[in-house]
Amino acid sequence: MSEAIQVGKFVELTYKVTDKKSGHVLTRVDFPLGYVHGHNEILAPFVHKELEGRSAGDVIEVPIDGNLIFGPRDESLVFTDHIDNVPEEYRQVGTSILMENDEGQTRSFIVTRMDGETLTVDGNNPLCGREVVFTLEILTVRDATGEEIKAGGATGAQPDVDPSLMRPV
């Protein structure tokens, strides 16, 4: 009998996030992501709740309404400017830019569009206004070691991943 996910268990899984409307995969994690359940909540709390009681080999789908988590899209967070006003290093779709307002609050903006004359950035979370499905495949469930509990996750060798490969699909 395989072990079930519960507090104190070390869990490894992979996942993908799919836009429910279009069917496009928005992001995926294909190398095992390890954590200690109840000690290091790496995903949204309701995803962790859906994982409880599951075992290695299980594949689950968790529908998520981006509006409930991140709120509705706020078009006042979308800005378009002449490309000459934007530093060269930000002139690529998908680039993340950390901006600060007059009160010192910061927000991450993503370059979403660019043409020969203008560049558009969006401060909304990419899941705002979207319904998505998290598909999670549970690879490992076992008792966590004391070292893993202290660290909140895996403590051994980590995958050697080229950072340039870690981008949304």
Report on the structure:
With 169 residues, the chain is mostly beta strands. The chain contains three helices and eight strands, in the order ββαβαβββββα. It has two domains: 9-68 and 128-156, Chitinase A, domain 3; 74-122, Thrombin, subunit H (Beta Barrel). It has helices at residues 45-51, 66-70, 146-151; strands at 9-19, 25-36, 59-65, 78-82, 96-100, 106-114, 118-122, 131-143. Strand 5 (96-100) and strand 6 form a beta hairpin. It starts with 8 loop residues before the first strand and ends in an 18-residue tail after the last helix.
List keywords for this structure.
Thrombin, subunit H, 2 domains, disordered C terminus, elongated, mainly beta, 169 residues, 4-stranded antiparallel β-sheet
Write the layout of secondary structure elements.
Layout: E1 9-19, E2 25-36, H1 45-51, E3 59-65, H2 66-70, E4 78-82, E5 96-100, E6 106-114, E7 118-122, E8 131-143, H3 146-151
Antiparallel strand pairs: 1-2, 1-8, 3-8, 4-7, 5-6, 6-7
The secondary-structure class comes to: mainly beta
Number of domains: 2
The helix count comes to 3
Q: Rough shape?
A: elongated
Percentage of residues in DSSP E strands = 35-45%
